[in-house]
Amino acid sequence: MILPVIAFGDPVLRKVGVDISSDYPQLPTLISDMFETMYHAHGVGLAAPQVGLAIRLFVIDASPFDEDEEDKPKQLNFKKVFINAEILEESGAEWSFSEGCLSIPEVREEVSRKSVIKIRYQDENFKTFEETYDGILARIIQHEYDHIEGKLFVDKISPIKKRLIVKKLDAITKGIIRPEYKMKYPAQKKRKN
C-alpha cells in the first residue's frame, strides 16, 4: 500500500526515533509499504518518520543511481532495510552533493558529508550487522539516518541558503507545493475571525 509522505513542518520529522523489537506490530507489512511508497515517489530511501512513525527504521534502494551512470558498470544493486541503526563513525574527506528529500519536494541543495561511515544495524530478521560504506551509499544512509535522529538535510545548509528557500519551505508546509505522489501536510491552525 502506498502511504502518504509526511511534509516538511510536521513535528514527527523532528522526533528522535525509538528502537523497535521483532514484535513490532505488522512490521513486514510496514517495510513492504515503505518500499512501495518510496518507489512510487521515485526515491532512493525512506525513513519511518516520513510516513508518520517516530521509530528507528529506514529502507534504501540505490539502484536508480546505476541508471544515472550509463558508462559505468552496474554496482549499486543495493536494497536494504535498516532497523535500530547507529552510525559508529564518520570519516574520510567531506564532499558536496545536491540532495533532495521526499518530505521536502522541489528543494535541492548542496550538502557536505563525510565520505565513509561505519554503521551497526539490524535487518528485517533482526540479525545484527556492522558494516562500512563509502561514496553515494554512505550519503544515502547518512541522509536517512538523519531522519531517525530528527534531522533534515536543510539543517546542514548555510543560514544564507536557508533564507533563500524559506518561502518554498513555507509553501510545502501549507500544502501549496504538491508533488505527484501522495503527501500529508501539517494540520493548519484555524484562523480567528
Characterization of the model:
The chain contains 4 helices and 7 strands. The chain is an alpha+beta fold and about 190 residues long. Strand 4 and strand 5 form a beta hairpin. The protein is globular. The relative contact order is 0.21.
* Rg calculated over all Cα atoms: 17 Å
Number of helices: 4
Low-confidence blocks of residues: 189-193
Assign the structural class, choosing from mainly alpha, mainly beta, alpha/beta, alpha+beta, or little secondary structure: alpha+beta
- Largest sheet composition: 5 strands, antiparallel
Total beta strands: 7
Second rung of CATH, namely the architecture: Alpha-Beta Complex
Shape: globular
Distance between the termini: 40 Å
- The oligomeric status of these chains comes to single chain
CATH class annotation = Alpha Beta
- Relative strand content: 25-35%
Let me know the average pLDDT. Answer: 92
Across the major sheet, the strand order is 2-3-4-5-6
Within the CATH hierarchy, at the fold level, what is the topology?
A: Peptide Deformylase
Which helices and strands occur, and which strands form pairs?
Elements: E1 5-6, H1 27-40, E2 45-47, E3 57-61, H2 63-68, E4 79-101, E5 104-122, E6 128-134, H3 135-148, H4 159-173, E7 183-184
Parallel strand pairs: 1-7
Antiparallel strand pairs: 2-3, 3-4, 4-5, 5-6
Please name the defining characteristics of this protein.
Peptide Deformylase, alpha+beta, two-stranded parallel sheet, 193 residues, 25% helix, disordered C terminus
